[in-house]
Amino acid sequence: METLNGRSLGEFLEHIALELGCSTTAQDVALHLDKHDELRHLREQFLVPKVKDLPPTDLSVVDGDEDSIYLVGNSLGLQPKTVKKYIDEELDKWAKMGVHGHFEGSRPWACAEDCVVELMARVVGAKTEEVSLMNGLTVNLHLLLLSFYKPTPQRHKIVIEEKAFPSDHYAVESQIRLRGLDPQHSLLLMKPREGEETLRTEDILSTIEREGDSIAVILFSGVQYYTGQLFDMPTITKAGHKKGCFVGFDCAHAVGNAELYLHDWGVDFACWCTYKYMNSGAGGLAGAFIHEKHAYTVKPTLLGWWGHKLKTRFLMNNEMDLSPGINGYRLSNQPVLLVCSLQASLEVFNLTSMKALRRKSVLLTGYLEYLIKHHYAQDETDPDKPYVSIITPSNTEERGCQLSLSFSVPIRAVHKELEKRGVACDMREPNVLRIAPVPLYNSFNDVYRFVRVLGLALLANRSRSSQ
């Protein structure tokens, strides 16, 4: 794909429009970008729902045989086509050989997750031995905090965003209470400045500098789930370490979305789910990371037999031979069917690189931003015209795939109209739609179609309001 090469996105689109003899907002531009997209073949690896198969769709206003406009990979990624094949293989193996499947086949059940952990490590920028696939995200967060959060009278605080994902907030509060402490004193919530939607890196750093001597753990999202803000993880990590804090990240919205270099950044620990941008299916197997520098010094508080080294695990002598680092945190054998679905997705990621995906993502999301601002900016000459604001940072280095759109009209009505027309997107109270063009399978034409349908949804909402 042709790159920006120092041009602004507007200049880039104007250049293409000039070549095509059309406006920058014409569908021809989207089709041109798709034609020259070097990653367009990856869409063929996924099953894209048809409009007629989405439950809220109104087939009287839309063609049911079209692909749906699926822009909700930040909530649940699409199904890779090989998932069913891999799951069928394991069901067939179970049917034919029963218990022997634990040590036979392409993914023996006794170490199935180990068959794909190297692929996962590449996506998060880690060494294979620093990553484990296990449990769910919040379970892993609890296990990690049990080891890394060791409060003292002087150093007892945990720093998180004020609007962290609720599960993270609950986990942190309960970990503080588990130590006999009061979240009112030991939970430090960071919130944006008054009148702003996102956190400034300078404010995060100044808080760490000011409060650092009392902070035990800094825990941020990689990408903030509501605003779509991509945090400066290496800078936050460096600042935290300078003050003697452990630094961890919930990478649920960052993994498979942003370029991660957890090892090189020196992040102490991280965890993530795999059903969003990693496309492993609802409730898919989660991941966790502990930097190799902690492999023998930070140990699990809770033990299970899957944390025992594989070579001696089946001696069953009740003498723990603990795997170093994150692998020692494994409690039980992993569900092989969840391994299958994650493997299918990781193999698609392995056909490209996060750098290439990120390059497309910047252009894809930038194109969405350009069209939104062109069509739906506030019009001072028409105060009754609905308008859309983008609360996600415009700086591409401060965001991933997602744009969070705020509306001047009631959000529920707009969302309902979009769903009627075959759009799958995510609504979050009080007034935001989260739109995520995913570079693995979304096209520029998906973005163009969404923006066009959004206009129809706003028009329908306006007409109903005026009646």
UniProtKB/TrEMBL annotation:
Cell compartments where the protein resides: Cytoplasm
TM spans (from-to): none
Protein keywords: Acetylation, Cytoplasm, Hydrolase, Pyridine nucleotide biosynthesis, Pyridoxal phosphate
Sites bearing N6-(pyridoxal phosphate)lysine, chain numbering: K276
Documented EC number(s): 3.7.1.3
Subcellular location, principal: cytoplasm
Pathway membership: Amino-acid degradation; L-kynurenine degradation; L-alanine and anthranilate from L-kynurenine: step 1/1; Cofactor biosynthesis; NAD(+) biosynthesis; quinolinate from L-kynurenine: step 2/3
Enzyme type, top EC level: hydrolase
Family recorded in the similarity comment: Belongs to the kynureninase family.
Protein name from the UniProt record: Kynureninase
